[in-house]
Write a structure and sequence with these properties.
- By secondary structure, the chain is mostly helical.
- The chain contains 13 helices and no strands.
- Helix 6 packs across helix 7 and helix 7 crosses helix 13.
């Protein structure tokens, strides 16, 4: 039993390197999901998740195609395309202030489990890049298989302690958003909503860059960085059993896939 424990400690210790990044960007995806504009929220969540995986792959020197990152980030739930989003009439979707506040609080509760999933998927992807990836770059088929293994593991995992940490963090984010309802959209989109509302042409690459820049700034200053630091501290202590559990189950699943 002691040997198993040492093995788990040895195989998860490296995950502390990028845990702060994963926590912060998981919360940022949760914030983006609370953006009170239908279609835009799901697109933002997907973009931030893909950006997280791209950063992890680059840090671990694993070549992963954009299609592979999309497959791992989105799983079976495809977000709206940028073309459909940019062509949608967003003005009727922009809500009045009172309704917007209510929707933010509702979305905070609804998105809490998704934030935990963002954290878990990114953590397993980081572990995969650091210790399990071999051979050529990650393509879309490999990405789909990888996400399928993650979903199988996470569907059976129970992480009440970590879920509680993220739920409280997202609730605090929602309360801050209610006090300043437009601040949430500004942080999550860096003016993207305003530009779409003004019907200016915005290319997808430019929109992604705006979102990524906004996430970076939100992490460097403001309440998101502070909340992420508190969650990171909690995960590094009380949340370690959950991390060890999903990593061990994921490794077992991966080893079964490689057996002829």
């Amino acid at each position: 039993m002691a040997d198993d424990s040492n093995y788990l400690v040895r195989t998860t210790g490296h995950l502390g390197e990028h845990r702060r990044l994963i926590v912060l960007r998981s919360l940022a995806a949760g914030m983006a999901g609370m953006t009170p504009v239908p279609l835009v929220d799901d697109w933002l969540v997907s973009i931030i998740r893909r950006g997280t995986l791209r950063r992890l792959a680059e840090a671990r020197q694993v070549d992963a195609s954009p299609e592979a990152l999309k497959a791992v980030a989105d799983g079976a739930s495809a977000p709206p395309s940028w073309r459909s989003l940019a062509s949608a009439g967003l003005v009727p979707l922009l809500m009045q202030k009172t309704l917007r506040k209510a929707m933010i609080l509702f979305a905070a509760a609804r998105r809490a489990d998704e934030v935990l999933q963002s954290f878990a998927v990114a953590t397993l992807f980081d572990h995969y890049c650091a210790q399990l990836h071999v051979g050529s770059g990650l393509d879309v088929q490999s990405g789909q298989a990888l996400r399928a293994d993650m979903d199988a593991v996470l569907g059976r995992a129970r992480g009440q302690v970590v879920a509680r940490l993220f739920r409280r963090a997202l609730s605090a984010t929602g309360r801050a958003a209610v006090r300043a309802p437009l601040e949430l959209a500004d942080i999550a989109t860096a003016g993207l909503l305003s530009r779409l509302r003004g019907k200016h042409d915005v290319a997808e690459a430019e929109a992604v860059e705006l979102v990524e820049g906004a996430v970076e700034r939100a992490g460097e200053r403001g309440f998101l960085g502070k909340i992420a630091a508190a969650v990171d501290a909690g995960v590094s202590t009380a949340g370690q059993e959950y991390v060890k559990h999903i990593v061990a189950a994921f490794e077992e699943r991966q080893s079964q896939r490689t057996i002829p």
